[in-house]
Design goal:
Blueprint: H1 4-10, H2 30-55, H3 59-87, H4 92-110, H5 112-118, H6 122-145, H7 150-175, H8 181-202, H9 212-245, H10 249-269, H11 274-280, H12 285-315, H13 321-343, H14 354-366, H15 371-404
């Protein structure tokens, strides 16, 4: 006999309707996993550009384009993810429109070097346009095929289209040299804020039916992608160091420490029952979802910082030891503090206690002050020890609580 799943996939078109918020065993689809892979290219590109900027002593100047391009990547991923949680049909039209959005991600990734090096956002904006066109088409389809969601879907399609026209106008003014440099950042922030308001305006009448455990899994998978990119960046630094000076004790120490940091941050992120928290506090979804921009951004920046720190240790880049140390400490420390702050309103009883994670974050942020005494290797190794200590203390504390109950 043919299973329900096989019959579903054999159909060319499925009527799009809002999915149940309590759908059992809801997990990421194969298409969602394939969609995520296109973001690997874009994230790898901006991580490499940030690392190069730090190496050339232009880390501060690189932060603005890094955050701008990362916003486009994050916002496109997030819009697709929340839509899919509510309306995924996985039929032929849905898959083709998803492929269009994937193509937009790849175009955006191709434009990252020009955006960083020349301030030219032409290709990045065109890639973003392709992603938005695919999403607008999905929302129009939802409006046509699901009467109960029609008003919300049309508001989404309208809001996204209007803001996209703003991005196009901004690009045209830039290309014609009619947008003064001093207001380019202000115009970006204005349009980004408008993007953030679209979902809140669209769902005032009726909220979409996203699945809490599905969303928790999707965000966790994006965290894994970002950590994977950090592994790649650190490996790039190791390869460059080996080519320049061969193996050394310092290189081995900082490489192992970098791996421990990434593994510890992964462990910490998945300690909290995020799916249960979102299920009990659906009204906190905007705060939780939007604030993950900062969590994701610092994880992407951590990869660049590790690459610079490893290379600086292996063949002494011109960048100062303090800069290399801060390149790791700032994103790692901010991750610890942001992780606590973002999950605090959503999870009533957090597994990672604030008395553990807050002091750890502060210590990590302060460690570069000791770089003149212990060096970059010492700073990174100590960061690894602090992150590992958070995991160890939390695990022991959690075990003791379970045993007492």
């Amino acid at each position: 006999m043919t299973s329900d799943t096989e019959r579903f996939h054999s159909r060319l078109r499925v009527r799009m309707r809002a999915r149940a918020t309590d759908e059992p065993n809801r997990a990421s689809s194969q298409l969602e996993l394939l969609f995520d892979l296109t973001f690997v290219v874009a994230i790898a590109s901006i991580t490499a550009q940030l690392a190069h900027g730090i190496e050339q002593g232009q880390g501060i100047q690189t932060i603005a384009p890094f955050l701008q391009v990362f916003f486009a990547i994050w916002w496109a991923w997030m819009n697709f993810t929340w839509f899919a949680s509510s309306f995924d049909t996985d039929d032929a039209p849905y898959r083709l429109l998803t492929m269009l959005q994937m193509g937009g991600v790849l175009v955006l990734a191709a434009g990252v070097p020009a955006a960083f090096n020349d301030g030219d956002f032409l290709v990045v904006t065109l890639g973003y346009l392709l992603m938005r066109l695919g999403l607008i088409a999905q929302w129009i389809r939802a409006a046509v095929e699901d009467p109960t969601s029609r008003r919300t879907a049309l508001r989404y399609a309208t809001g996204i289209a209007v803001v996209q026209l703003g991005w196009i106008l901004r690009l045209l003014l830039q290309q014609a040299n009619l947008l003064p440099a001093q207001i380019q950042l202000a115009s970006f922030v204005t349009l980004a804020v408008a993007e953030l308001f679209v979902p809140m305006w669209a769902e005032r009448h009726r909220r979409t039916s996203w699945h809490p455990h599905h969303m928790a899994e999707r965000y966790g998978l994006f965290v894994i992608i970002l950590l994977g990119e950090s592994v790649l960046a650190a490996s790039t630094g190791v390869a460059a160091s080996l080519n320049a000076g061969g193996v050394s004790g310092a290189l081995i120490t900082i490489s192992v420490s970098g791996l421990v940091i990434l593994f510890a941050l992964w462990w910490i992120y998945f300690l909290e029952p995020i799916g249960e928290g979102l299920s009990a506090n659906r009204d906190k979804s905007y705060f939780w979802g939007y604030c993950h921009y900062a969590i994701f951004a610092v994880l992407a920046a951590l990869g660049a910082g590790l690459e610079v720190a490893v290379e600086q240790t292996g063949h002494h880049l011109e960048v100062s030891a303090a800069t290399a140390a801060y390149g790791v400490a700032i994103p790692a420390g901010l991750f610890l503090l942001l992780f606590w702050a973002v999950h605090r309103p959503v999870i009533t009883h957090q597994v990672v206690h604030p008395s553990v994670i807050i002091p750890a974050g502060v210590i990590v942020l302060a460690l570069p002050l000791s770089v003149s005494l212990i060096g970059v290797v010492g700073v990174v190794a100590t960061i690894a020890a602090v992150c590992a200590l958070v995991v160890g203390v939390t695990t022991i504390r959690r075990t003791n609580v379970h045993e007492s109950n």
